[in-house]
């Protein structure tokens, strides 16, 4: 039977980077993946331009049962280290906003760079991992092209998000088989869906976008919010979705920095025959302003006729919109899986299972989930490098 030093399962961001790091330790390395091409999520990431890191990377940009777990790996493989590789590969990039670095050209340049970095490792695509066992001296992987023995087995098969792209959740099965605990996986960075009652009111708003601020579960984000046919999306919703649990109410400020009731009162005196909807339309997109007035039964109402109490109620609807969302769009569209292999059962310096020498978990399958904005790739690089370099 074939014998390797390191077998990496998963040729995504973490697996490919790990192979390059393990090769530098002089090891015999193979990477296998059931997909046709490596780095499929890299290819579609960042709208095709791959938001490959974030300059503001710090442990507090990640959700995890142990918020300090990621610190060691992140400190030893930094955004600047990755940018150094990108520069040496001659890949042009730019900072979009808030430290988010994107390729100027196609995301596939990043995959090409990772493949160049792991030249010398054996890459086996269209090879499925069906299961693993330990035979007393090493791991035996049962694959669609036969068994492979390896002293170290590195699980880089990602989470459950986007099954259509090959996500399987097999990492969780392997973790449980070897006695590691799991933090229940759930969809993250995902659009949220309304209850039927809200849907009727909000469906006509599909396509409307507005800058919003949301505080929830100790997190606070401000970015674009998008109404969809099913609920809410846009960066601010994706961010908060990782902190939100089904049934929880969100408090959304649809006009941050504006005291809407105060502004409406101030314009009321010289308003003449202007409608409330038109006054609100100076603060919010017209369709949203009209929908809020319709819902309050104030479609044609003149601003000049409104009492303070009524304007305060409208202001509260904008600055403190309480909305009950019932679910998420699920793994079908989720950018990541929150939860995963419990960090209490992994060594933070190497990603090795504490009680199973030679077994490692890296990337998205671990209970470390970044905010939107390049943090998840930075975690993939950092955790991969920690495992690849482990002595
Ligand atoms: P990843 O999912 O990349 O790779 C796992 C690999 O394992 C896959 O190739 C899969 O085929 C393989 N596999 C699974 N089961 C197997 C089995 N049984 N046998 C063999 N192979 C198996 N993040 C970011 O930082 N910036 C961004 O711009 C984006 N953009 C983005 C857009 C979209 C649409 C999505 C869905 C996600 C993002 N992300 C992102 C998140 C990012 O893509 C994600 O965090 C990383 O790809 C995780 O890397 P991994 O290598 O851990 O898993």
UniProtKB/TrEMBL annotation:
Keyword Transferase in annotation: no
Keyword terms: FAD, Flavoprotein
One of this protein's Pfam families, by short name? HI0933_like_1st
What are the RsdA/BaiN/AoA(So)-like insert domain coordinates in residue numbering?
186-336
The record's InterPro entries line, in alphabetical order, gives: BaiN-like, BaiN-like_dom_sf, FAD/NAD-bd_sf, RsdA/BaiN/AoA(So)-like_dom, RsdA/BaiN/AoA(So)_Rossmann
List the Gene3D superfamilies. FAD/NAD(P)-binding domain, HI0933 insert domain-like, Translation factors
Q: Does the keyword Protein biosynthesis apply?
A: no
Q: Which cofactor does it need?
A: FAD
Residue ranges occupied by any RsdA/BaiN/AoA(So)-like Rossmann fold-like domain in the UniProt entry? 5-389
Put simply, this protein is called NAD(P)/FAD-dependent oxidoreductase
Organism, as annotated:
Paracoccus sediminis
């Amino acid at each position: 039977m074939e014998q390797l030093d390191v077998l990496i399962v998963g040729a995504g961001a973490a697996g490919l980077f790990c192979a390059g790091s393990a090769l530098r330790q002089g090891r015999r390395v193979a990477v296998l993946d059931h997909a046709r091409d490596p780095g499929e999520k890299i290819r579609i990431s960042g709208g095709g331009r791959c938001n490959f890191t974030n300059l503001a990377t710090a442990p507090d940009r990640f959700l995890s049962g142990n918020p300090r777990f990621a610190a060691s790996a992140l400190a030893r493989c930094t955004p600047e280290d990755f940018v150094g590789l990108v520069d040496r590969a001659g890949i042009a990039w730019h900072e979009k906003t808030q430290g988010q670095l994107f390729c100027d050209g196609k995301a596939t340049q990043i995959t090409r760079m990772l493949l160049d970095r792991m030249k010398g490792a054996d890459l086996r695509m269209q090879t499925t991992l069906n299961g693993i066992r330990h035979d007393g001296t090493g791991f035996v992987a049962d694959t669609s092209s036969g068994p492979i023995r390896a002293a170290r087995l590195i699980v880089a098969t990602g989470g459950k998000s986007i099954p259509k792209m090959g996500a399987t959740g097999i990492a969780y099965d392997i973790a449980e088989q070897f006695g590691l605990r799991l933090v229940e996986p759930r969809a993250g960075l995902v659009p949220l869906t309304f209850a039927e009652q809200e849907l009727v009111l909000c469906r006509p708003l599909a396509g409307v976008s507005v800058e919003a601020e949301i505080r929830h579960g100790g997190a606070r984000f401000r970015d674009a919010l998008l109404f969809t046919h099913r609920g809410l999306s846009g960066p601010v919703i994706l961010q908060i979705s990782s902190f939100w649990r089904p049934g929880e109410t969100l408090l959304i400020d649809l006009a941050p920095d504006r005291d809407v009731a105060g502004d409406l009162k101030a314009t009321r005196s010289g308003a003449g025959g202007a409608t409330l909807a038109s006054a609100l339309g100076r603060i919010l997109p017209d369709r949203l302003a009209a929908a809020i007035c319709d819902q309050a039964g104030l479609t044609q109402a003149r601003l000049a006729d409104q009492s303070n109490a009524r304007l305060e109620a409208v202001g509260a609807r904008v600055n403190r919109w309480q909305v009950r969302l019932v679910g998420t769009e699920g793994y079908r569209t989720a950018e990541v899986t929150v939860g995963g292999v419990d960090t209490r059962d992994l060594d933070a310096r190497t990603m090795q299972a504490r009680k199973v020498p030679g077994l490692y978990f890296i990337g998205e399958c671990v209970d470390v989930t970044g905010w939107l904005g390049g943090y998840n790739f930075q975690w993939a690089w950092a955790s991969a490098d920690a495992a690849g370099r482990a002595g």
